[in-house]
Amino acid sequence: MTGRICIDLFTTLDGVGQGPGGPEEDTSGGFRFGGWQAPLPDDMVGREVQAGMEHMDALLLGRRTYDIFAAYWPHHVTGEEGGIGRLFNRIPKYVASRGNPELGWEGSSLLGADVAAAVSGLRERHADVHVIGSIDFVQTLLAEKLFDELKLWVYPVVLGQGKKVFPDGAAPSTLRLLAPAVTGDGGAVMLRYAPGGEVATGAMDA
What we know:
Layout: E1 4-12, H1 43-52, E2 58-62, H2 63-72, H3 82-90, E3 93-96, E4 108-110, H4 115-125, E5 128-132, H5 135-143, E6 149-155, E7 175-177, E8 182-183, E9 189-195
Parallel strand pairs: 1-5, 1-6, 2-3, 2-5, 3-4
Antiparallel strand pairs: 6-9, 7-9, 8-9
InterPro entries: DHFR-like_dom_sf (IPR024072), RibDG_C (IPR002734)
Protein name: Deaminase
Pfam family, one: RibD_C
C-alpha cells in the first residue's frame, strides 16, 4: 500500500493561511486578524471538508495546530461537530516538532526527525493522511514535495499581513491542477493541486 499525503489549508486571496480559526490561534508576528474565517461561512466548504474525511485514517500536524486540536476535539464528540471529533479522536495523530513535547491526546506520537523518511513510513502504514493547518510545518512538505495533494480553500478577504502559504523564499515549483475549481455561494473557492515540476521561463511573443 502506498498512501496519500493531503494538505488542507484555508487561505485568503493574498495567500495568508495564519490563524483562520480564532483570535488566539496564532498571534505570532503581531498577527491581529485571527479568526478571519468565521465571518465568511460557506456551505460548500463544509460539504467538501466532510467529503474529504471519508477515507482519512491519520492526521499529521505541526505542534501549534496539534495543541489547538488536542484542547478542543476530545471534548466535542456530540452535536453538529461530533462526527469530526469522533474521527479525530479515533485515528492516529503524528506531530512534527523540533522538541520533545508531551502528547496527551490518545493515539498521538512524535514524527521522526528525518521528515522525508517519516512521511515515507506514514505512506506505508496509512492510506489517507491529512495535514490540516500547520502552516509552518507545511512549508517543509511543500519545499520537499512530500505531499500528493494540496487543497486550498480560498476566501474573499485580503489581510495584508500574516504567514503565507507561499512566502517569499518558497522553493520555486509548478503545481498541477487535479480538478476544476469548486465555488461556493459565500465566495470561497476550493482548488486541488498535485506537485508539479521545475519552473520554466520564456517570452510571451516567442
